[in-house]
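Subject: mismatched residue count in predicted assembly?

I count 524 residues in my input, but I want to confirm that the predicted structure covers every chain. Input:
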Amino acid sequence: MTREKIDTFKYVVEPFDDDFTGRLSWNVLGKHILACAERHAGARGFDRLNEDGHRFLWVLSRMVFEMYEWPHLGDNYAISTWVRRYYRYFIDRYFDILNAEGRLIGRVFTIWAMINEKTRKPEALNELFGHTFDPYLETQRPCDMQPLSHIRMATESPISTRRAYYSDIDENNHVNSIRYIELILDSFPKELFSSHEVKRLEIAYNTESYCGDSLSFYSQPSAPDDYFVVIKKNVGDPQQPLGETICHSAVTFAPISKLTKQ
Amino acid sequence: MTREKIDTFKYVVEPFDDDFTGRLSWNVLGKHILACAERHAGARGFDRLNEDGHRFLWVLSRMVFEMYEWPHLGDNYAISTWVRRYYRYFIDRYFDILNAEGRLIGRVFTIWAMINEKTRKPEALNELFGHTFDPYLETQRPCDMQPLSHIRMATESPISTRRAYYSDIDENNHVNSIRYIELILDSFPKELFSSHEVKRLEIAYNTESYCGDSLSFYSQPSAPDDYFVVIKKNVGDPQQPLGETICHSAVTFAPISKLTKQ
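Triage response: the counts match. Full output below for your records.
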């Protein structure tokens, strides 16, 4: 088992890892973030567990991206990750995204829990693993990010509704946490991505959704270039007509030239 | 420039490269197929072109997958690719998918054209590049696959209709050719993927679709475990009420144990 606190993984923006503008896609960046977390945790004895017929899965509670510069098709980049803090049920995990020269081009802050696959409830981390993150906590590395937003939604009408399908579901048997980000960004006009980049995106996951669920999107501007987007499931269901909130998010865009200049 | 005829690229099924059953996802396999093609072509001087302000893009005309065994989460696999034949406007490109021991677990046959980004019409390949694929043609390597299906659709009612969004669009500014495969498979019930695997999938691309287009799915069984699926765009448009066919596909499922035994 490694004794290092931080792991770094290297990537290239391969053909079709990018969006229509040539920037690294959220699908690929997000999956790398999830995979880096799993590999870092696994190398330190905090793997997904499969004990006495009970499977335990790492799931995201919150995630915040701050992007200072987006990698483009063909660019090399790296992702470093470490755990800064842990609680009974949660860990705070950070990521730096570095360009080919090692310059910081983005930061990601995440909070994770480990859930029992059957009960879908979080488990006390120390009891589950019999050891703690103490030897691996990295508390010195800078990780300053803007505080989390208070996401409030005044509107009661969804701007769109989509169904969750086979291709949206991941190995945890629920809609993939990164897929929600893609769906949230799909609620903006494509033209916006020609002139603007996402500078900051935060998402708080409240409940899971499954294949066949109906997902409704609520969106409102919160400031110039800032939007709140909320996803609810199964709105109009006779048992729960107002639906259930799957996640809250806040998205900040910046004109491309302004962001690239920073 | 390389003088080899065949290139081989190595991969691992990373966390979240798999579907909910643990099998390599179509999204990831398909993107690797596209990327292998681009890298193989590029290394031999047949890159995407950008000349006199005209961009030329490789696009798929047809694609057939035959899978004898699916890689699972954590498995190593490799993709080999070569060009067997070329015509004025098209090339025939093959792929072998190999497991960690080098055993053949899948084959892919593709036909590609290079289109002018503005006219969206194919260009004569020799004239465009000033050289031919002759030195690179690999005609000896076995590549036997079942003949292409005659896909006919009797039904006139779509089983579902979805819109194309930002996350469906790739660097060629149209719905990604692999994304259609995901959308086609989304038209089957998720439970089918618990008991069955896709054994063969063929798709013929007729026309492109773009962000905002409405995509309608028509499906009918053609034999036990065999289905034809057709996607049309903008059905009901006053100019063209019957819509325009984007692609035809044929999908063959096999019970998981049967397929894995082969």
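The helical segments of chain B are 26-42, 125-129, 177-185, 192-195, 256-261. Marking this ticket as 'not a bug'.
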